[in-house]
Amino acid sequence: MNAHIYTNDRSISAGTIARTAVLALALTNQLLSACGKPLLPIQSDQLEQLVTAGITTVTSLIAWWKNNSFTAAALEADKTFDRLKKSVH
Q1: Could you tell me which residues come within 8 angstroms of residue 79 by beta carbon, excluding any fewer than 6 positions away?
Q2: What is the pLDDT along the chain (89 residues), one digit of tens a residue?
Q3: How far apart are the first and last CA of the chain?
Q4: What integer best gives the mean pLDDT of the chain?
Q5: DSSP letter, residue 13
Q6: Which among 5, 13, 38, 39 has the fewest CB atoms less than 10 Å away?
């Protein structure tokens, strides 16, 4: 994915922001569901909790697996890695 958001001298990828936003939404829904105020309009309590736990688990694994670079050092390391990858091909 080549889309980036530029902040000062750093560039955070759109994928990083999207994965972070989906994870935040899933975790928020999980917490609200545990408090009895779910965001998903599912009637059965057990089904709603299973769906919510599944969504949270999947988004957590995706966000954990992908390289989400936020710090300046991590962003610079990504640039170095991309340069090295291009020079090999």
Answers
A1: none
A2: 455 555 555 678 888 888 888 888 888 878 887 788 877 666 777 777 788 888 888 888 887 777 778 788 888 888 899 899 898 86
A3: 18
A4: 79
A5: E
A6: 5
Say how far apart CA 33 and CA 44 lie, in whole Å: 12
pTM of this prediction?
A: 0.49
Nearest Cα residue to 13 out of 23, 22, 3: 3
Instruction: Please report, as a single letter, which amino acid is at residue 82.
Output: D
Three-state secondary structure call for residue 39? coil
Cβ(69)–Cβ(75) below 8 Å:
yes
**Torsions phi, psi of 5, nearest 5?**
-110, 125
